[in-house]
Structure formats: C-alpha cells, structure tokens
Amino acid sequence: MTRVLHVLDHSLPLHSGYTFRTRAILKAQEALGLDVRGVTGQRHAAPAVPGDVQQADGLTFYRTPGEAEGPTGWREWKEVSALAARIVEVARDWRPDVLHAHSPALCGLAALKAGRRLGIPVVYEIRAFWEDAAVGNGTGREGSAKYWLTRHLENRVVAGADAVVTICNGLLEDLVSRGYPRSRFTVMPNGVDMAMFGTPLPRDAALANELGLGEGPVIGFLGSFYPYEGLDDLIAAMPAIVARVPDARLLLVGGGPAEERLRVQASASPAASAVRFVGRVPHHDVDRYYSLVDVVCYPRKGMRLTELVTPLKPLEAMAQGKLVAASSVGGHRELIEHDRTGTLFPPDDPAGLADAMADLLCHRQRWPERRETARTFVEKRHDWALNVRRYLPVYQTVLGQEPDYAEIAA
C-alpha cells in the first residue's frame, strides 16, 4: 500500500475552502486504498494538541510546534525549517513513499528540503498563486517586492519538485508561459464529495419565515466576504432586479473583510428591504441555508486571481441542485457553460448582472432542466471519488513505476 504524507498550510478541524479540499482528497485516496496522513506548518492557528498529533474527521494530522513570528524573511525561513524538521521526524517513524506538498510555496520548500534528506520524491500541488491571492484579499499589492519574492519562491518549488499538479488549466497555462514544459503538469480539478453534498435538504420553511424571505425567488451567496468576490456589484444590482422581480430577495451568509462595508452599502440601497445578512453560521447548518436559495450567485471581480483560479463553491451549489450564476471571469468559464450548466454575466458590471439575473428569475420553466444538467456535470466530471484516480499515475511516475492506466480508468 502506497503511503502519502500531505504537507499542508492548515487543516481540519479548522474550516476553510483549503481544508475542505484537503479532506475530500484524503478521504477519496483512503477509499482508493492509499494510506494517507497530513502534516501542517506553524500557520495552522489552532490550540496545541498532546503529542502534536491530532485526529479530525477520522484523519491523522501531525502538527509543527512553535509559532510563526519575527521579521519578514526571517519568519518564513524559520517556518520552512521547522516544517521540514517535522516532516523528517514524521517520515522516519511512519515511512511514507511520497511527500505531497500543497501550496503555498513555503510548504513546497519544506517538502523539498525534507525530501532531499530522506530520499523521498515530492509532488507539489498548486491551488492558487498566493501572491495573487494576497492582492485579491487586500493584504498585498501587485508588483511589490513581496509579490515578486512569493512568485520567485513558487518558481523554485515548481523547478525542484518531481511532479507538479494544478487545480485548473488557468494556472497550468500561466506556468507554461513562464517556460516550463506542459508535460511537467497534471490538472487535478476541484471536486465535490457527492456523499456530503449530493443529497440537498428540502426548503426549511421555518427558517425562511424567520428571515422574512417570503416565497422568493431567493438569490444567495454563501462564503467569505472578500473584496474580489464582487458582492458590492450584487448589492448594487438588487434595485434593478427587484424592479423586474418584486419578490426577489438576496441572502448573504458568511463574513469577512468586506462585511462592514457591504452592510453599509445595503442599508443605503433602495432595495435595502430585500437584502438579508445572516453572518457566519456553523458548518453543519450550511445546508439549511442552501435549502432556501434558488440561485447561488458568484459575481467575482475581473483580476489575475479570478481569471486563473477555479473556485469550489459553484460545484458544491450544482451538487446541491441549485441554479448557478457567475461573472464570466476565466475561473468561472472553466467550470460553467453559459445557458447550459449556469448563467454567465460580465464582471464588474451591476447593470449586466441585473439583466442576467432578472432574465433567469423570470423564466422558471427552464430551471428543472438546468439543475439536472448541472448536477449531472458535477457527478461525471467533478466527483472526488472519480477524480482522485488522476493522482495515481503521478505517484507511480515519481516512484519509478509504470502507470497502471487500467486501474486508473476502473
């Protein structure tokens, strides 16, 4: 049985898109017969656990002791060194066959350092370019020294790893444009654990009444409120949407850096009475709020992050049997086919968003076929139980084995 040690920035029991993708990968790999564990760096900001080993949702995670602190540069060097030492410690006891590091580059650098000491091959998986993510969430600036340093570190890991995986074609094409051969990369697209998301709840009438949603239709967004998500454009579009669909309501579930500004914007809107903020909700309650939503909307801004990276949330919404509408940035176009699996509208354009949403809401006869088409698309193309097989030839190649394509296709 092949043993794979996943090197991670953070993990369960923390909740984020990053940890949910990790959980899905590890669970699907276990079901495939691989022996998997994870090790996290010092940025896993959670209370210490006895022995620095933790069980979460039936998965084993090793923790790296200490805290990430100190001036920029020195702090990151210490993080990489501490994580590399922890990987070596874990590996000498558990003896993995492969180190599978996931972005950011600090995880990849630690894995490369440990892999060289241990003689173990390293697979590096890029979920996003973190310099672009920093720009998107407002903590970085494109073209800054930190931006280029982060990009340089990413390039070092890509060059040093035995194999590289990306989550989408947008990231792959950007790497190819940097001079790396296309054959070096494998795409492992975002997926959905259909066992978790494949059985949507019936509409929670009591919760709908509590929130004053009426009979709808309800437009929803469930996630983190970062500026790049474009929720300001969605709120700006609501007066025009309500003018054409008077009973339409907007349900915003979650929180984040843009929340306060969005609340102020909504309270000043002519459509203020049609907007509901719920705040953050426990993860086990998310399905109750999904049950209230007819159309899940993702109005992401146009920028490098959103053009290159495919999000996870639209796939989860499709699996829940929800209609999906999204801005036509590259990451969305890679997942959504306009007028077939979803509705695309121009980014950074509240008027265009309003026209697309109102048209969708006014043609309910199209909804059942659209829902079924989108759900089937996720089942066939983005179910982790199937997609996880794409890792097998990657592992077999770095281990010097001949890929068993019959097993992969089974």
TrEMBL record:
<protein>
    <submittedName>
        <fullName>Glycosyltransferase, exosortase A system-associated</fullName>
    </submittedName>
</protein>
<feature type="domain" description="Glycosyltransferase subfamily 4-like N-terminal">
    <location>
        <begin position="17"/>
        <end position="191"/>
    </location>
</feature>
<dbReference type="InterPro" id="IPR024004">
    <property type="entry name" value="PEP-CTERM/XrtA_GlycosylTrfase"/>
</dbReference>
<dbReference type="InterPro" id="IPR050194">
    <property type="entry name" value="Glycosyltransferase_grp1"/>
</dbReference>
<dbReference type="InterPro" id="IPR028098">
    <property type="entry name" value="Glyco_trans_4-like_N"/>
</dbReference>
<dbReference type="Pfam" id="PF13692">
    <property type="entry name" value="Glyco_trans_1_4"/>
</dbReference>
<dbReference type="Pfam" id="PF13579">
    <property type="entry name" value="Glyco_trans_4_4"/>
</dbReference>
